[in-house]
Design brief:
This protein has 649 residues and is α+β, with helices and mostly antiparallel strands. Helix content is 50%, strand content 15%. The strands form 4 sheets. Strands 5, 6, 7, 8, 9, 10 and 11 form a 7-stranded mixed β-sheet that branches. A 5-stranded mixed β-sheet has the order 12-16-13-15-14, with helices on both faces.
């Protein structure tokens, strides 16, 4: 119940704290950890802001207390409670690849507090109880207003934080070393030698249970899909046992619009999901979205061509899922999004911009290795360049410039222009996962939806071709207030259907297992590191890495290890098993067949690729390593790291 109450208090534009803290632009967004947490022995609720001015701290603390009291006086709308219950019902029915692990995580907090397992798993009983519960005011008063067990934490930035931190660490290290005797130092030295021997020793895994490559089927699992036209719109149907849920996706082709207009697309997607539309303001629409759908998701998609590295698809993907009985309401919400989004609320759009920026900056710390890989790959092929412009540091810099504008009206006009191009596109197609016995009713509903959307649809997959793109060497060190590095090296290779691509994927796994993880993680002290072959680009990466110079050497060491022929048949077999663990992992109902829908990758392509994985030999691995990764390659290196680092030339 307290978790539901937390959702009522802080989630969505209709929530009390969103109105009092976020919409007032007092801060950038909620502080990390805001909301209910039952994972510990003592459950907690946190609420706060980040990006607050020092002068406003006391005001924010006062506003929080006033918001609790105002929520007690005004209560909560029944629509919002129904929306939360609907989300719970939807999550119960939706399958996922890690359903079992997610279930264990969800029941763990209650189990830690002594609840009975069978009672915890009786989800429908819990939902019925929430539906009948009507003492939200008493629950709010007891847990938040009269509860005196509170902690107020204020974190303020320091311009000298990194310098002071380093001085403290050096002082602490000096104090610890001064206490060591010569005997202690010798013992530490000998322990280090023993650790190095242990790290370099070949591990004996013969006693561990393991599959063999011969246990892997040569047959690629098949997903049946149908292709029809509904009101002149291409639709991919994937009949599945969806447990009463319908999954829908739309794909609208984009262009590299002049004057950099396409750079606004990620921001536009965030705005369209949250502004008002039709005859509803943004709060009413948010309530309806929560009540009838899983949410409306919009995002730009850059898909490298599976055969030609200089060709790619650029589109916007719209997706959601809903209970079968709510399909009509879901399509109606999408219809309002396409026909009449409301860009008139400049304060709301600025709030959305602040949230997007805040999330993007926080993402660098959590996924800095991906940011580094995206940055490194941008100079190697046109798809990677566009992907970086839309999803990388270039996009954050672009949004930050917009945020500096005192008046967003010019930006809003650009968003409206771009929305008309995106939402009224000619090249438009749809995908639907559903139970077979409701296909006719679903097609009828989708026909009415398509007929209401302006523009003519065609059955052509439009691909963007660029002028001859020349890959360039690039070296970037990007300073961030971190104590560690994120190190990426990118090398151009070949696309998905090329015979060498699966061999490069296998090579990346081999390098990770046998060289990169031991060198970067076990010896170097980084949180992680490895290699991966993507679409036409081979990446090396490290994550939260204290020593990036040694990491760059480790990348070269992994190449030399392969060229020296040190890989064994056992190493190759282990790499193949790891690859197929991912390839043959369970796929959720709503994701089956989406590879073809988004990128045109057919079952036949996957079958050929599967056989190439299984048939890869040691000689082929050495050959592709020499062909693509060794010698004077056109590579790109990007490092995200602290300002005071020693940067080698």
């Amino acid at each position: 119940l307290v978790a539901v109450l937390s959702h009522l208090l802080i989630s969505g534009p209709s929530s009390p704290f969103f109105k009092s803290l976020i919409e007032t632009n007092t801060g950038l967004s909620y502080s990390p950890g805001s909301g209910y947490s039952g994972s510990g022995n003592q459950a907690t609720f946190s609420i706060g802001l980040k990006g607050v001015k020092s002068a406003d701290v006391e005001s924010v603390i006062s506003t929080i207390q006033d918001t609790f009291k105002k929520s007690l006086e005004e209560g909560f709308e029944s629509d919002r409670i129904e929306g939360i219950v609907h989300q719970m019902e939807l999550s119960m029915k939706r399958d996922s690849e890690n359903f079992g692990l997610s279930l264990l995580h969800s029941i763990l907090p209650s189990f830690m507090h002594g609840a009975d397992i069978e009672n915890i798993c009786d989800f429908q009983n819990h939902i019925n109880y929430i539906k009948s519960f009507d003492e939200w005011g008493s629950l709010l008063n007891e847990n938040f207003i009269e509860n005196s067990h509170r902690l107020t934490l204020v974190m303020e930035p320091s311009a000298d934080y990194q310098k002071d931190r380093q001085m403290e660490e050096e002082k602490l290290l000096s104090e610890k070393v001064s206490l060591l005797t010569d005997t202690d130092k010798m013992k530490l030295f000998e322990s280090g030698i023993e650790l190095e021997k242990e790290q370099n020793k070949e591990q004996d895994i013969s006693s561990l249970p393991c599959l063999s490559v011969s246990d892997i089927s040569r047959q690629q699992p098949y997903t049946h899909i149908d292709h029809i036209n509904v009101d002149d719109t291409p639709v991919q149907l994937c009949p599945q046992p969806t447990n009463g849920i319908t999954y829908i996706s739309f794909l609208a082709d984009e262009d590299l619009y002049p004057d950099g207009l396409y750079r606004y697309l990620p921001f536009l997607c965030g705005v369209l999901a949250k502004v008002g539309a039709g005859n509803m303001d943004h709060r009413q629409r948010a309530n309806q979205i929560e009540r009838y759908t899983s949410g409306l998701s919009l995002s730009p998609l850059v898909t490298p061509h599976h055969t030609d590295p200089n060709t790619y698809d650029f589109s916007t993907v719209f997706s959601s899922h809903c209970l079968e009985e709510n399909l009509q309401q879901t399509l109606s919400l999408w219809q309002d999004t396409f026909l009449s989004p409301d860009f008139s609320n400049q304060d709301l759009i600025r709030s959305i911009l602040s949230d997007v920026l805040s999330s993007g900056v926080a993402n660098i710390g959590h996924h800095g290795h991906i940011v580094a890989m995206t940055t490194a790959g941008a100079s190697l092929n046109p798809a990677s360049k566009l992907s970086e412009e839309l999803n990388g540091l270039t996009q954050l810099t672009f949004l930050n410039e917009i945020a500096k504008q005192t008046d967003l009206q010019d930006t809003i006009s650009i968003l409206q222009t771009l929305a008309a191009k995106t939402l009224h596109t000619v090249n438009f197609k749809a995908s639907c996962h559903l139970r077979e016995d409701i296909i006719d009713n679903t097609v009828e509903a989708m026909s009415a939806f398509f007929s209401s959307i302006p523009g003519d649809r065609t059955d052509s997959d439009r691909e963007l071709e660029t002028e001859l793109f020349v890959a360039e060497k690039n070296r970037k060190y990007i300073k961030f207030p971190f104590q560690v590095h994120y190190v990426a090296r990118a090398i151009p290779t070949v696309p998905y259907t090329h015979p060498d691509n699966p061999i490069l994927v296998l090579l990346a796994r081999l390098m990770t297992n046998k060289v990169l993880h031991p060198e970067i993680r076990e010896k170097g002290g980084a949180y992680g590191g490895g290699a991966t072959q993507g679409e036409s680009v081979f990446h090396f990466f490290s994550y939260r890495d204290p020593n990036f110079s040694e990491t760059l050497k480790a990348y070269n060491k992994s190449i030399d290890w392969v060229l020296d022929g040190k890989l064994t048949e056992q190493d190759i077999a282990e790499a193949k098993l790891a690859i197929f663990q991912r390839i043959d992992a369970p796929v959720s109902t709503g994701r089956k067949g989406l590879g073809y829908f988004k990128s045109g990758i057919t079952h036949e392509m996957k079958q050929v690729r599967r056989e190439r994985f299984l048939d890869t030999t040691k000689e082929q691995l050495i050959h592709v390593c020499r062909k693509y990764l060794s010698g004077d390659v056109v590579d790109s290196i990007a490092v995200l790291g602290p300002e005071n680092a020693d940067i080698p030339q």
